[in-house]
Specification:
The protein has twelve helices and 17 strands. By secondary structure, the protein is an alpha/beta fold.
């Protein structure tokens, strides 16, 4: 099969032996594979990423001196099965799969490990239990976005955002755009998106953002049509005074019972939810400095450098800081069906398609935010530019 192999940061399209499905695995013929932001990082910073992965318990992340077939946002058609499989679908059935293989008890990240070649190829191996049939005749272009949209759905779910809370999305690259799309699918009434790039602001609007902000001219916190009631520490203290004055007027119910009920139900004043989708040093501290009290900050962007922030700022405003990563099988399946059922439209993210011979050009193009968001690879296309 033909595949794009990267080594020491350079891509080369080569003819490789066709993969052979092992126990519990299936072989699929790739129809589309997306280029992820993490692929852009891994191409040139994989040794640093490998060190970070090893520190958290995963020792098989790709290294620069290895020969790697990247690509973990893929869809394709069932070609054949390995031993010990249930053969759930007929050959030719369109499927998507979570990008992870398992040899014995050892997991391998597809497209990011030398032991699990990815979807920048004509064929890729998948684990049968982690594979899902594509429903409703969903196009390969849209099915391929199941993986990145599942990342966004996980972030939105973990944020525990209520429909009436304001969401701020800081950074409108592919993951920020996916978060905007999923927030609107979840019914969040007000989504404020912020990015320096005019092109990304345009795409944020197409993805459903209610307010789109250029941070060089306006702070996102000032752009929301629903201004927060609590903007500083004084407001928090006055809220306590006002609550006690009202509760003391109720003679028959001890006021502390009402506080206990609110604590048990987790009810009380709440700020907005901020999704940090930039992933560069300094952004978290900027958010902690500018965000109103009681904000929940969900860190989705992957910062590869050491970062610093001032904890006292977050403490004084009682800001919650939450980090998210990946998704679970239920979220992956649900994302696929949300797309197939028309509840989520990922089409604004797709800005170009190339064949295997166009991958190097696509990576170079994606370094600039002004033209493309998500470029897909069609292994059977001869396109060399998106």
């Amino acid at each position: 099969m033909r595949a794009a192999v990267v080594s020491k940061g350079e891509f080369q399209v080569e003819d490789l032996p066709a993969p052979v499905a092992g126990p519990g695995q299936a072989l699929i013929s790739v129809t589309r594979c997306g280029i992820c932001g993490s692929d852009l990082h891994a191409r040139v910073h994989c040794d640093e990423l490998a060190d970070l992965a090893a520190a958290t318990g995963y020792d098989h992340f790709m290294r620069s001196d290895q020969r790697i077939v990247m690509g973990h946002e893929f869809t394709g058609e069932i070609a054949e099965y390995g031993p010990g499989t249930r053969r759930r679908w007929k050959p030719g059935t369109p499927v998507v799969a979570m990008p992870i293989l398992r040899n014995g008890r050892g997991p391998e990240l597809t497209g990011l490990s030398a032991h699990a070649p990815g979807g920048y190829a004509e064929q890729v191996l998948v684990q049968e239990p982690m594979t899902f049939a594509v429903p409703n005749g969903l196009s390969p272009d849209h099915a391929a976005l199941t993986e990145p949209m599942a990342v966004a759905w996980h972030a939105v779910r973990r944020s525990r955002i209520a429909k009436g809370q304001t969401a701020f999305v800081i950074g409108c690259g592919p993951i920020g755009l996916a978060v905007i799309t999923m927030l609107k699918a979840a019914g969040v009434h007000t989504v404020v998106a912020s990015d320096f790039s005019p092109r990304r602001r345009e795409l944020a609007d197409r993805c459903g953002a209610d307010v789109v902000v250029d941070p060089t001219t306006e702070a996102p916190w000032a752009a929301t049509p629903k201004q927060p009631r609590i903007t500083g520490a004084a407001d928090l203290l006055n809220l306590a005074f006002d609550a006690m004055e009202r509760l003391r007027r109720i003679p028959t119910i001890p006021w502390w019972y009402l506080f206990r009920a609110a604590h048990t139900l987790n009810r009380g004043p709440a700020g907005p939810v901020v999704f940090e989708c930039v992933g560069v040093p300094g952004i978290i501290d900027q958010i902690l400095t500018a965000a109103p009290p009681l904000t929940r900050v969900v860190v989705v962007g992957v910062c590869m450098q050491q970062d610093n922030f001032h904890p006292a700022r977050a403490i004084n405003k009682e800001i919650e800081l939450r980090f998210v990563f990946g998704y679970d099988p239920g979220e992956f399946r649900d994302t696929l069906h949300m797309i197939a059922d028309g509840k989520v439209d990922p089409s604004p993210l797709i800005t170009g398609t190339v064949g295997l011979d166009g991958i190097d050009t696509a990576f170079t193009t994606l370094a600039s935010p002004e033209h493309h968001a998500k470029i897909l690879i069609d292994p059977r296309s001869d396109r060399t530019a998106p």
